[in-house]
């Protein structure tokens, strides 16, 4: 595909988190071709851009977030766009589960507890790094879901079509997408599923949670279990 596009003089755009010469998975020939093109380094988004990203992310979810919440997230999550989006999703997920309005104090607590950032304000001061709890991993999510439903990890991964296992697997996908920085493709690699399968499962679960009170309660209990396991660890 690359060779055909190259010989047809088509324009190609690639993005990466490292320079072409550092792409160990590619051959020297491919890296050389990448380096022959125009290389543009994209810096971290500035404050103005971060504010727009956070506001847009909330609006895309149908939420009008308070200005102080938007400012807090944009001022404290400075790593990259993915971290910003993840922070917003964590806030939205918590609020949807708890049925509480989005308020600055609660948002500070959520991000202090779940963020992998270096420092976050607490009562106007920077919280020490030792107080920041790392983001949950998908293995921890799988462990919490399987413990809750009394099933094994293999049953979640083996592709069984049993209704109970499908629900458990879909909740793993939903939670992983909501509270980690993983993409649908990355989740699919862990669960041995394609990107489109993971996306459909996520959208199906998201829709089901809006109208299924029992499933919402189960999700809330799983998140509580996940948090308790993290605290014990």
Task: Describe this structure as you would to a colleague.
- This protein has 233 residues and is mainly α.
- It has three domains: 2-35, no CATH class; 47-131, Orthogonal Bundle (Helicase, Ruva Protein, domain 3), CATH 1.10.8.60; 138-232, Chromosomal Replication Initiator Protein Dnaa, Chain: A.
- It is 63% helix and 2% strand.
- The protein has twelve helices and two strands.
- Strands 1-2 form a two-stranded antiparallel sheet.
- Strand 1 (121-122) and strand 2 (125-126) form a beta hairpin.
- The chain is globular, with a radius of gyration of 20 Å.
Question: Which CATH class of the largest domain is shown?
Answer: Mainly Alpha
The number of helical segments is: 12
Q: What topology, given as strand order, has the largest sheet?
A: 1-2
Low-confidence stretches: 115-134
Q: Would you list the SSEs in sequence order as H and E?
A: HHHHHHEEHHHHHH
What is the structural class?
Answer: mainly alpha
Number of strands: 2
* Major sheet size, sense and barrel closure: 2 strands, antiparallel
């Amino acid at each position: 595909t690359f060779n055909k596009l190259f010989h047809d003089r088509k324009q190609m755009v690639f993005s990466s988190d490292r320079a072409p010469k550092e792409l160990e998975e590619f051959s020297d020939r491919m890296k050389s071709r990448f380096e022959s093109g125009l290389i543009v380094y994209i810096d971290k988004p500035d404050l103005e851009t971060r504010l727009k990203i956070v506001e847009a992310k909330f609006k895309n979810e149908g939420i009008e977030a308070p200005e102080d919440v938007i400012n807090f997230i944009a001022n404290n999550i400075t790593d990259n766009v993915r971290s910003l989006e993840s922070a917003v999703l964590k806030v939205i997920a918590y609020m949807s589960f708890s049925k509480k309005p989005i308020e600055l104090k609660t948002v500070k607590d959520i991000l202090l507890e779940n963020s992998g950032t270096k420092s976050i304000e607490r009562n106007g001061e920077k919280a020490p790094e030792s107080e920041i709890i790392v983001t949950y991993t998908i293995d921890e999510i799988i462990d919490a879901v399987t413990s809750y439903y009394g099933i094994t990890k293999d049953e979640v991964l083996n592709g069984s079509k049993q209704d109970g296992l499908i629900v458990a697997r879909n909740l793993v996908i939903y939670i992983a997408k909501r509270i980690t920085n993983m993409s649908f493709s990355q989740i699919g690699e862990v669960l041995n599923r394609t990107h489109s399968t993971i996306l459909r499962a996520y959208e199906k679960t998201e829709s089901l949670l809006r109208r299924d009170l029992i499933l919402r309660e189960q999700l809330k209990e799983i998140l509580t279990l996940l948090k308790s396991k993290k605290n014990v660890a």
